[in-house]
Amino acid sequence: MVARARVSPSVRHLRSTAERLNLFQIDSVNVLTRAHYLPAFSRLGGYDRALLEGDAWGPKRQRRMFEYWAHEASLLPLDLHPLLRWRMARAERGEIGSQRLRRFALDLRAEAVAILERITAERPLTAADFENGSSRSGWWEWSHVKHALEWLFWSGFLTTATRRGSFARVYDLTERVIPPTVLATPTPSVEAAQRALIERSARALAIATASDLRDYFRLKPAEADHAIADLAEDGVLVPVRVEGWSQKAWMYRDAAVPHRVQGAALLAPFDPLIWERARTERLFGFHYRIEIYVPQDRRTHGYYVLPFLMDEALVARLDLKADRQAGLLLAHRITLEPGAPADTLSRLRAELDGMAAWLCLDAVRIGAVVHRS
Question: Phi and psi for 171 in degrees, rounded to 5?
């Protein structure tokens, strides 16, 4: 998990991390920093976030990543584009997606085409650039135009040119954003693409159940189980037994088996290591739920809580906030897990100091420290 560069992390380190993980999940919450920046920090330390922004939203010739729905909304290496075209085609036919999005494949297709034609003529636009494009009651409620744009995005007609203002997606034609060499890459069969996605999931997870493998790219059983069977037959997936797991498990053929894991990292709620909460509990005995959507008086650990990985265990969780005006990284509450080693707080403080420096904050302020019984 934690194999940080001893020198200042370079774009090569960042791209290697992106290739290994396959994606950086995007989330709109910015109480600490946007979620897509954090997995690379957990693995590399204080890298330059401008490197990720350049690969994600830089000039076409520089771009190394694109946005699409993978696990959730995600930044993905460009070589995944051909492997997800089958999903785009199904969305275009109205076979997948929410009911509100599917309408634009059928009954409301003319409206979506009109929006596509305007972007073709006027270049990149946000939802707010269209009449009534802003949400009616805050960012939770998508407008009619936003749904049309998202169907065009889901179907592959549009992609994200850049992000603007409060992280609003700026839509443009896919062919004006994705490099032509990527678009010219042959589209594999649906079955071959799904097999490749499962193999990438296995490589990222090392050991996983079938459910874990499907979840990585949000594949349904009918889309993934044939791939798991094929990869098992070819020896790419090796059946293993994991002590304490009731489910059958698979190990990726080339997975390294370390004798001992050492390191420390603060993990984003949407980090691939812990985003599937049942897997987190199976691996670490750590019950974790994000409480952003829980009323404040009912929260157990805080609003934006990051688990702390130390060596081979999740030993603490922290409710963090970046107070940019005051220049402080606020640890409102630190909860130590039962059995947390004696040096947990000292190693945690070093990670917090590193995170504060990375976020260009001047200091760390720690509030309550609680020992969970």
Answer: -90, 140
**Using CA of residue 193, residue 195, residue 198, residue 199, what is the dihedral sign?**
negative
Strand arrangement of the beta sheet that strand 264-266 belongs to = 264-266, 305-310, 313-323, 328-336, 363-371
Instruction: Compute the distance between CA of residue 355 and CA of residue 320 in angstroms, rounded to an integer.
Output: 11
Q: Is the pTM of this model over 0.70?
A: yes
Buried residues in 140-151 as b, exposed as e (16+ CB within 10 A): eebbbbbbbbbb
- Choose among 147, 133, 157: nearest CA to 99: 147
pLDDT digits (tens, 9 = 90+) for 56-102: 999 999 999 999 999 999 999 999 999 999 999 999 999 998 999 99
Q: How far apart are CA 111 and CA 130, in angstroms?
A: 12
First to last CA, the chain: 27
Segment 2-20, tens digit of pLDDT: 445 456 899 999 999 999 9
Q: Which residue from 299, 69, 311, 78 is spatially nearest to 169, judged by alpha carbons? A: 69
Sequence-separated (6 or more) residues with CB below 8 Å from residue 337:
286, 313, 314, 315, 316, 317, 372
